[in-house]
Design goal:
The protein is α/β, with parallel strands linked by helices. Helices cover 34% and strands 26% of the residues. The protein is built from 3 helices and 8 strands. It has a 4-stranded parallel β-sheet with strand order 3-4-5-8, covered by helices on one side. A two-stranded antiparallel ribbon has the order 1-2. Helix 1 links the parallel strand 3 and strand 4 (45-47). Helix 1 (28-40) packs across helix 2.
């Protein structure tokens, strides 16, 4: 597997990554098995989102089974309050211990913020 530095983050990620939007199209066991196989072959970056119909749980299970260090990229949307909820939920599930001992995310994106006027 080839690895590349991701932007200015210093993260070294595989040249091939997973997107998980379509995981809902296959049985859960097959989805987990597919991810685990890729992780075992060196894939170490995966994108998921809370609205991908259970993909967060599938990714978490695949990481647990593979025991590999995987960079999980996720994103949120909605009002600031809902966005914060998605961020905290993603951090709880995929965060890694930071310098302070608090779980930190390597990446989290903003799909869109709905402003209230």
């Amino acid at each position: 597997m080839q690895y590349r530095r991701l932007g200015r983050t210093g993260l070294m990620v595989s040249a091939i990554g997973y997107g998980t939007c379509q995981l809902r199209m296959v049985p859960v066991e097959r989805a987990v098995e597919t991810l685990v196989t890729g992780f075992d072959l060196g894939v170490n970056i995966v994108h998921t989102a809370p609205d991908y119909a259970g993909a967060h749980d599938i990714v978490a299970e695949a990481i647990r089974q593979s025991r590999r260090d995987v960079c999980v990229c996720s994103n949120g949307w909605g009002t600031i309050e809902f966005f914060e909820h998605l961020f905290e939920e993603t951090r709880r599930q995929f965060g890694k211990p930071g310098h302070s001992g608090t779980k930190q995310l390597e990446m989290f994106g903003i799909a869109s913020v709905i402003a209230r006027y």
